[in-house]
């Protein structure tokens, strides 16, 4: 059933209970008052009857049996000497009412009237006695002290009924609005798990909304993780396929390269080799070395293991590479700067190749007169090597492809530099990340700071 109907039913039932209670209390008050007044009227009649039938011996003065009852006599207007106005000592209004009653009072029964006074209800009675006297009696019936209490109870019940109705109405409105808000939020979350979930005014619905928001956040995080894992799985599958190809190519190419290099070295060291031929043989040897390095890069990207990792001072590795790269950077109008130091467990040769790739990328992306900054620091259990430049970076829509093999934005690039650097970071137990913020391109190479040689 709907919460609105349930609250409405509760409100109606409670209102009926309160209504019946208020009516009952008012009825009790009225019945109690009527009974007191009826007893007061009956008392006046009985006392007048008793007095008229059995007057007291001392001149006819009455001795009343009820405390608070007052009475007296007056001359009958029919007796010679004229009428005597009744003076009861109560009030002028009471005297006038008694005179009126005396004028119409019969001999065989009492005439009773009532006046509302501050103390309650004043009953006045008049009757003619057998000896011709005019008898009058006055008796005040005060309001019961319990009447005020009963009226207070009735007022409280009425106020409680109104308050209950207001609370129920407010609850229905708040619950309806909260439920509608949650329904709209659920519809929005079907399209976007990051949609905002408003908090209803009711605490119970607010806790439900918090649970929905928490669930949506968890689902969004799980979706991001699923996408990341799918991307990582796809990358690993591509690298696995590449690894199988590279392993075969490396095997088929390295053996001929080794044979060629051996013959070139033998030719270079032979006696009587002309200088021009020796110079050409040196160039051939450099190209063989470059091809061998390229094969090594393929093997690293495809997931083949790097060399043995040892405890290394990263600043020493960076300083050596920057000395070799500084001349080339100056030719392009770019300066190099390094700060900080930290130790890490890495393969020094592989780490040097990663530094070369990151610094070369920064220099090639920087405009003339710019500076490529290398910072080394310790962050908890990691040593972080950061390379920053003021270049344009890569288009935002292609940032996810940045570390893919053969991805490049340079016409002369091979697209292996960043892929090799990331593979070295992963093989070293770390990671390589890219950030673009405030016109600065930042690569962070994070590797374990401790752990011993591997």
TrEMBL record:
Database matches in Pfam families: HATPase_c (PF02518), HisKA (PF00512)
Coiled coil: 212-239
Subcellular location: Membrane
Record domain Histidine kinase: where: 248-451
EC code: 2.7.13.3
Cellular component aspect of the GO annotation: membrane
Top EC class, one word: transferase
Gene3D superfamilies in UniProt: 1.10.287.130, Histidine kinase-like ATPase, C-terminal domain
Annotated GO MF terms: phosphorelay sensor kinase activity
Key words, A-Z: Coiled coil, Kinase, Membrane, Phosphoprotein, Transferase, Transmembrane, Transmembrane helix
Keyword Kinase: yes
InterPro entries linked: HATPase_C_sf, HATPase_dom, His_kinase_dom, HisK_dim/P_dom, HisK_dim/P_sf, Sig_transdc_His_kin-like_C, TCS_sensor_his_kinase
Name of the protein this chain belongs to: histidine kinase
Organism, as annotated: Polyangium fumosum
């Amino acid at each position: 059933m709907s919460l609105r109907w349930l609250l409405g039913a509760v409100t109606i039932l409670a209102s009926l209970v309160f209504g019946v209670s208020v009516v009952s209390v008012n009825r009790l008050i009225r019945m109690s008052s009527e009974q007191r007044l009826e007893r007061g009227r009956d008392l006046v009649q009985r006392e007048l009857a008793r007095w008229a039938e059995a007057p007291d011996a001392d001149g006819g003065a009455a001795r009343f049996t009820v405390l608070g009852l007052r009475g007296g006599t007056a001359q009958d207007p029919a007796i010679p000497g004229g009428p005597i106005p009744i003076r009861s000592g109560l009030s002028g209004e009471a005297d006038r009412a008694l005179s009126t009653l005396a004028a119409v009072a019969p001999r065989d029964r009492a005439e009773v009237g009532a006046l509302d006074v501050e103390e309650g209800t004043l009953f006045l009675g008049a009757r003619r006695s057998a000896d011709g006297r005019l008898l009058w009696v006055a008796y005040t019936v005060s309001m019961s002290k319990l009447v005020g209490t009963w009226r207070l109870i009735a007022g409280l019940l009425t106020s409680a009924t109104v308050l209950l109705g207001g609370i129920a109405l407010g609850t229905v409105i708040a619950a309806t609005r909260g439920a509608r808000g949650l329904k709209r939020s659920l519809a929005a979350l079907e399209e976007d798990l990051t949609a905002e979930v408003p908090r209803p005014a009711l605490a119970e619905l607010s806790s439900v909304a918090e649970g929905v928001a928490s669930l949506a956040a968890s689902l969004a995080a799980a979706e991001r993780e699923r996408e990341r894992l799918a991307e990582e799985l796809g990358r690993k599958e591509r690298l696995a396929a590449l690894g199988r190809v590279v392993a075969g190519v490396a095997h088929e190419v390295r053996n001929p390269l080794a044979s060629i290099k051996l013959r070139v070295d033998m030719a270079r060291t032979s006696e009587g080799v002309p200088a021009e031929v020796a110079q050409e043989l040196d160039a051939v040897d450099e190209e063989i070395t470059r091809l061998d390095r390229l094969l090594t890069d393929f093997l690293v990207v495809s997931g083949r293991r790097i060399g043995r990792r040892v405890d290394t001072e990263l600043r020493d590795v960076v300083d050596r590479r920057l000395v070799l790269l500084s001349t080339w950077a100056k030719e392009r109008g770019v300066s190099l700067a390094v700060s900080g130091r930290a130790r890490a467990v890495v393969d020094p040769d592989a780490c040097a190749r990663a530094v070369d790739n990151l610094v070369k990328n920064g220099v090639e992306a920087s405009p003339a007169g710019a500076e490529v900054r290398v910072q080394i620091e310790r962050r908890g259990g990691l040593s972080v090597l950061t390379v920053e430049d003021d270049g344009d970076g890569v288009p935002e829509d292609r940032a996810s492809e940045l570390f893919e093999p053969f991805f490049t934005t340079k016409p002369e690039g091979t697209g292996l530099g960043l892929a090799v650097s990331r593979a070295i970071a992963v093989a070293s137990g770390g990671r390589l990340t890219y950030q673009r913020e405030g016109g600065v391109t930042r690569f962070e190479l994070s590797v374990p700071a401790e752990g011993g040689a591997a």
